[in-house]
Amino acid sequence: MDPALRAAASGMMAQQTRSEVIANNLANVNTTGFKRSRAQFEDLLYQNVQGAAVIGAAESQTTPAVQVGRGTRLTAVTRLHTQGTLETTNRPLDVAIEGEGFFQVQTGQGQVAYTRDGSLQISDQGVLVTSEGYTVQPSIRIPQDATTVSISRTGVVTATRGNDTSKPQELGRLELARFVNPAGLQADGQNLYSPTPASGEAQAGFPGDDGIGSLVQGSLEGSNVEIVQEMVDMITAMRAYEINSKAIKNSEDMSEIADNLVK
To answer: Which residues fall within 8 angstroms of residue 144, CB to CB, at 6 or more apart?
Structure first.
């Protein structure tokens, strides 16, 4: 195959992947705690048409090598863990994280996963769970006769029971986990992440301690997707895809001209 066709085809595939990443960002613009991703690429190997040449003239000793690139390829889809906007819901069990950290939850397979989605519920057993039914860790049980539940910025969960509002009862304290490299977390869907060697081990702590974020009751963290920026990126990807397709057409036209010369 003509090297120009290969290079242009790799460019089209790269822009197709970039469009897929952007489309996923836009699809999750209203997903609680969603973090946008960005596709990254690198150039491929180069063909040395001619090495560096020694001239030896007084004004110019050498000339640089002549290299022709062979296209591009996807190297990473990086997740950007910047803060999403806080949306006030006034629902007592909606909790947003302001700053670093993830809620720890236990999945149905008994594994611990991590999420920024703080839309909590009370299970039929009276335990705090996520909207998917995963138990928040450490487990906190809400009394059946609790009339109000309060969650402080430092994660302390208290409840008033019955008509006695003068003495709130402390039920436990929420913990958050953070990672040296959050971008290395593996997204598992359902707003959950799993640690990987690239993310490092989870470091648990209380909200507000040692740089861990604080909690905001009655709010949820929206996605960090900026629609205008995604649309600009989408247009840029489309233009790049279009210009690569023209490069393929030009290469094909040149091959056709060469074939006609032979005939």
So the answer is: 126
- Residue 1 pLDDT level (bands cut at 50, 70, 90): low
| Nearest Cα to Cα of residue 206 among 127, 91, 104, 93 | 104
Indicate the SS3 state at residue 256: helix
Structure tokens at 260: 């006609």
Beta bridge partners of 100: 212
Dmax of the chain from CA atoms? 98
Beta bridge partners of 250: none
Backbone torsions φ then ψ of 166, nearest 5 degrees: -85, -20
Do the beta carbons of residue 41 and residue 15 sit within 8 Å? no
- Burial of residue 211 (number of CB atoms within 10 Å: 0-12, 13-18, 19+): exposed
Tens-digit pLDDT profile for residues 170-224: 999 999 999 999 999 999 999 999 999 999 999 999 999 988 999 999 999 999 9
Task: Compute the Cα dihedral for 47, 19, 22, 230 and give only its sign.
Answer: positive
Measured CA to CA, the distance from residue 33 to residue 46 in angstroms comes to 41
How many C-alpha atoms does 238 have within 13 Å on its Cβ side? 8
pLDDT digits (tens, 9 = 90+) for 79-98: 999 999 999 999 999 999 99
Tokens standing for residue 210: 């040692």
Give the residue among 35, 83, 207 at the shortest CA–CA distance from 136: 207
Instruction: Quote the CA–CA distance of 27 and 189 in Å, as a whole number.
Output: 13
- Cβ atoms within 10 Å of 174's Cβ, excluding its own: 24
